[in-house]
C-alpha cells in the first residue's frame, strides 16, 4: 500500500481492537485490585498550568514536557505525571474526606522522550496513593497493593521482587560522612548510577566526598540495624501480611531526587532484565509545597506504567496465558449472531435482535442481504458462540453452537429465557 | 481557606471520587451497550498532526484547537474529536478486519471554547461508528444503538427523541431551486439557523436565493415522498426493530457542514431544553479524503458527550435514581472493614486482610492503632457493609452488619467462605 498522507506521531500509539483489549485487561485488573484494597478512583486534568509541574519536580522533567501557550496566553503542559495534580486536588478538597485518603487513578501521561522499547511519548499509568497517614503501616499497605496487582496479573513470587530503600538512611549516611545538605542531591545521583558508572569515574566522584566505593557498597550490603527504622517496620508489617517472599531491603534504589522524603521502592522482574515495573515512595512535603503551606498532608504512593508491565506479561508464560484467557472471553464482538435465512422474516429478525440486546445478550446480524453461508461466515469472524437462525420455520428458531456445529431449536417468544440459560451453560446442546 | 497557588485551568475538571464515579457510570453504561450491540473498542492518540484535523473539517474547528509546536517542531493538536483519527486508522488497518467495522471509543477531547453550562474545554465523548457498509441498514443499526444507550441510562420514550434528517434531501431541494454546488454550504448554514435567526434577516438571506421562508418551512413540514429515500428506509427498519416511538423525520436538522454526506441525526431531550445529547450521521467520503484516495470506505457514526447527558440524567428523576443506585453500589470504598479490637492480634488481622482481598473481597482496616470506636467510625465512613472484629476471641471473629448492628460470629480459618456467602446474601444475620 502506498504511504498514507497521515501517520500517528512518533511515540504515540493507535489502539486497534486487540491492543485496546490488552489495555482494558490492564485497566480492569488495576481497578479491581484497587477497589479490593479499599481505594477510590479519581481523575486529574490532562492539561495543567506548567508552574505546577516545575514546582513539584524542580525542573527534573522540564526537558521532556509537551509545553505550550494556549489561546488565552497561559503557559500549559500536557501532564507528564499525575502526582502534582493529586497534591493540588488534595490540598483543595482533603477536608471533604476522612483520612487517610486512599485514592487511585488510571490515565495517560505524556513525555517527550526518544521512543524505544518499553517507552513512548504517551503511556498509561496506574497511580495509587495514600494521603494523610505518616506511619509505616501506610507504606506497607501501599506495597501490599503493588504486590497484589502483580499477583492479579498472573505473576508469582518467582517472577518479581519489591526492593525497598529509604531516603532517610542515605541522609544519615551523608551526615555521618560530613556531606552537607547542599551536596546531598549530587551525592545521591552518584549512588543512583552506582552500577552503571565506569569504576574509575565512580571512584573519583566518591573521592570528592572523601568516600571509597567499598564504603558505599558496604553500607548497601550491610546497612547498620538503625539505618532505616521505617523500612524495618514496613518489612515486619509486610511479613505479617504474608508478603515476606516478595520484598527485600535494597538501599541501592534511589529514584528521582526531587520530592521523595522517606521510604522508596521499586518492583522489578526477577531477572532484572527490564526497567522497573512500578515504583514509588513517601513524599511528605509535596502537598505543602504545592499549596504554599496551606495544607500539610503526609503521603506515599506508587505508579505502574503500561509499557513495561505489558512486555513482562508477554514474556512470562503463565501471565501471558492468563491475559490470553481474558482476551478470549472479552474479545468476541458478539455472543449471538442472528442469521436471516428467509428474507421475508427480516423484520422478525430485527425485532428479535432488539429483544435480545435489551435483555443484555450481545447480539449482531448482517446489515445487508447476504447469503446464508456468508452470514455464517460473518458469525464465525465475529467469534460469536451461537448462530440463531430466523428462517421459514419462524417463530421456531434454530440455534447452532458454532464450535461444535450442534443444532437445537426453540420458540422465538421465549428466546431471551432459553438463550440466557444457554449462554450460562457450558457448550453443548441444551434444548435437544 | 486562602486562595491556593494552583487551580485547574478554566474549563478543565478535577474528578474527585463522586464525580469520577459518575463518569464511570457513563463509561460502564456506554461500554456495556456497545458490546451488547456488537461493537469493538479502539482508542486513538490524544495528540495528532494538526493537518489531519484541518483536512477533515475544512477549518470548521480551527479557531478552537489546542494547537502547538512540539519539541521536534511538529505542528500538533490535542484531539478536538476522534473521527479524523478513526478515518486515518481505518484507512491503514481496514484490511485486517471483516466488514463492516463496528467500532466504539470512549475518551477525552479538547476544544478551546468559552466554558459554560453543558460545555468545557475538555469533555469525554462516546464515539460509535460503522465503516464499510453503505446501505441504510447501517444507519438504522447505529441509531438503534443510540436509542439503546438512552434506555440503558434510564430514559424512556417520554424523555427523548431522535430527529433524523438527510443532507441529500437538501441537495435535492437546492438543485430544484437553482442553488449551485458552491452556494450549498452558505444555503445550509441559513437552514441551520432557521429557528434562531431574526425573521427579517432570515427572509433577506433566503431572498438572495429567490426563496421565501414559507417555501423552506413548507419543505421541512411536508417533504415530498421522494425527498429522502434513505431516511424512509431507515425509519422503516427502526420501526421493525421496535423503535418507532423514538424517531421522526426532521429536515431542520443540519449539523456541521464539512463532512456529512447523507442521513444525519440528533438525539434531543423531549423538551428540547438543552443542546443535542448526541448526534451523527453518514460520512461516506472522509476515509478517502484522509487517505488521499488510498482507501474508500463508506461510514456512519455518532458521538455523545458527557456534559449534556449528565445534566439530562440529573434533571430526569427516574434516570437520576437509576444512576444513584449504581453509585451507591459502586462507591463504597470497601465491603468489609477489619476492626482490630486487641492490638496483640494485629498480625492476625493483617494476614486476614490479605486472605480476604486475595479472595476478591474488598477489605480495609485502620492503618494506625485507633480505639475500637474510632475504627467503627472509619468503617461507617468507608460505607462498608460489614465490620469484622479481630479481638481476644480470635480465631473466632465477630461480624457486625453496619446497617442493622446485627452481630454474628464465625471462625477465621474459613472466613473467606462464609464472608463470600454473606456478601451475596441480602443483609441480615446468616450465621446466628
How is this structure best described in words?
- Two copies of one chain form a homodimer.
- With 432 residues, chain A is of the alpha+beta class.
- The first copy, chain A, has two domains: 17-326, BirA Bifunctional Protein, domain 2 (2-Layer Sandwich); 334-424, 3-Layer(aba) Sandwich (Rossmann fold).
- Helix content of chain A is 39%, strand content 20%.
- The first copy, chain A, has 15 helices and 16 strands.
- Chain A has helices at residues 17-36, 50-57, 83-93, 136-152, 167-176, 184-192, 199-207, 213-221, 229-241, 286-290, 306-315, 317-330, 346-358, 372-381, 415-424; strands at 40-41, 47-49, 67-69, 75-78, 101-110, 122-131, 160-166, 247-249, 263-269, 278-282, 299-305, 336-340, 363-365, 386-390, 396-401, 407-411.
- An eight-stranded mixed beta sheet of chain A has the order 1-5-6-11-10-9-7-8. A five-stranded mixed beta sheet of chain A has the order 13-12-14-15-16, with helices on both faces.
- In chain A, helix 13 links the parallel strand 12 and strand 13 (363-365).
- In chain A, helix 1 crosses helix 12 (317-330) and helix 4 packs across helix 9.
- Chain A is elongated.
- At the A-B interface, helix 1, strand 1, strand 2, helix 2 and helix 3 of A face helix 1, strand 1, strand 2, helix 2 and helix 3 of B.
Helix content of chain A: 25-40%
Can you name the CATH architecture of the largest domain in chain A? 2-Layer Sandwich
> Can you count the helices of chain A?
15
How many individual β-strands of chain A?
A: 16
Please report the two chains with the greatest interface, counting residues with C-beta closer than 8 angstroms to the partner's C-beta. A-B, 103 and 103 residues
Strands ordered across the widest β-sheet of chain A:
1-5-6-11-10-9-7-8
Distance between the terminal alpha carbons of chain A, to the nearest Å?
A: 50 Å
The name of the CATH topology of the largest domain in chain A is: BirA Bifunctional Protein, domain 2
Q: How many structural domains does the protein architecture of chain A include?
A: 2
Amino acid at each position: 500500500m502506498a504511504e498514507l498522507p497521515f501517520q500517528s506521531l512518533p511515540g504515540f500509539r493507535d489502539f486497534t481492537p486487540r491492543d485496546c483489549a490488552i489495555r482494558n485487561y490492564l485497566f480492569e485488573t488495576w481497578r479491581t485490585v484497587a477497589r479490593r484494597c479499599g481505594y477510590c478512583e479519581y481523575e486529574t486534568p490532562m492539561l495543567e498550568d506548567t508552574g505546577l509541574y516545575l514546582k513539584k519536580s524542580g525542573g527534573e522533567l522540564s526537558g521532556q514536557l509537551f509545553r505550550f501557550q494556549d489561546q488565552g496566553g497561559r503557559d500549559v503542559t500536557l501532564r507528564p505525571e499525575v502526582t502534582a495534580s493529586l497534591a493540588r486536588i488534595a490540598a483543595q478538597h482533603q477536608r471533604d474526606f476522612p483520612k487517610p485518603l486512599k485514592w487511585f487513578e488510571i490515565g495517560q501521561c505524556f513525555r517527550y522522550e526518544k521512543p524505544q522499547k518499553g517507552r513512548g511519548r504517551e503511556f498509561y499509568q496506574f497511580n495509587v496513593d495514600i494521603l494523610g497517614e505518616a506511619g509505616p503501616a501506610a507504606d506497607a499497605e501501599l506495597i501490599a497493593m503493588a504486590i497484589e496487582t502483580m499477583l492479579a496479573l498472573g505473576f508469582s513470587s518467582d517472577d518479581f521482587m519489591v526492593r525497598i530503600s529509604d531516603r532517610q538512611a542515605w541522609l544519615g549516611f551523608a551526615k555521618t560522612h560530613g556531606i552537607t545538605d547542599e551536596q546531598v542531591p549530587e551525592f545521591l545521583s552518584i549512588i543512583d548510577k552506582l552500577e552503571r558508572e565506569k569504576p574509575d569515574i565512580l571512584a573519583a566522584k566518591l573521592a570528592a566526598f572523601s568516600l571509597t566505593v567499598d564504603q558505599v557498597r558496604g553500607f548497601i550490603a550491610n546497612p547498620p540495624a538503625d539505618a532505616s527504622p521505617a523500612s524495618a517496620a514496613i518489612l515486619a508489617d509486610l511479613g505479617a501480611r504474608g508478603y515476606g517472599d516478595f520484598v527485600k531491603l535494597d538501599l541501592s534504589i534511589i529514584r528521582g531526587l526531587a520530592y521523595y522524603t522517606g521510604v522508596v521502592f521499586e518492583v522489578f522482574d526477577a531477572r532484572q532484565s527490564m526497567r522497573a515495573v512500578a515504583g514509588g515512595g513517601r513524599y511528605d512535603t509535596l502537598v505543602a509545597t504545592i499549596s504554599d503551606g496551606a495544607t500539610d498532608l503526609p503521603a506515599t504512593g506508587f505508579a505502574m506504567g503500561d509499557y513495561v508491565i505489558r512486555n513482562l506479561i508477554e514474556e512470562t508464560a503463565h501471565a501471558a496465558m492468563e491475559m490470553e484467557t481474558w482476551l478470549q472471553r472479552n474479545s468476541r464482538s458478539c455472543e449471538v449472531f442472528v442469521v436471516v435465512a428467509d428474507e421475508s422474516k427480516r423484520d422478525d429478525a430485527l425485532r428479535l435482535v432488539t429483544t435480545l440486546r435489551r435483555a443484555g445478550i450481545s447480539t449482531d446480524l448482517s446489515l445487508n442481504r447476504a447469503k446464508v453461508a456468508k452470514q455464517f461466515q460473518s458469525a464465525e469472524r465475529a467469534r460469536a458462540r451461537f448462530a440463531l437462525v430466523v428462517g421459514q420455520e419462524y417463530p421456531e428458531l434454530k440455534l447452532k453452537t458454532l464450535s461444535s456445529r450442534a443444532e437445537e431449536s426453540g420458540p422465538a417468544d421465549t428466546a431471551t429465557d432459553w438463550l440466557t440459560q444457554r449462554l450460562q451453560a457450558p457448550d453443548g446442546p441444551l434444548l435437544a
